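My current task is to audit a protein record that another person submitted. I have pasted the whole thing underneath without changing anything:
***
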Amino acid sequence: MPKTLSEVTRDAAELPTSERLKLARILLDLSETSAEPAEELQVAWDDEIARRLRELRTGTVQGVPLAEVKKRIEAGFQP
């Protein structure tokens, strides 16, 4: 007999954080009904990555150091 949603949820809550995140990604992938084939999506991502790298290399945009990004994120979670 299949598990109920409540049982699955309870089991998922007991997983380590990294495993819960993997499970969430799997569930999202299973529920996606994208009209675009995976290959077209990959091409779009490749184009986006190339555009962003080009902007960084030409100085069109300025990068932000990881330490600064972390500080900004953590500051956003402060009361």
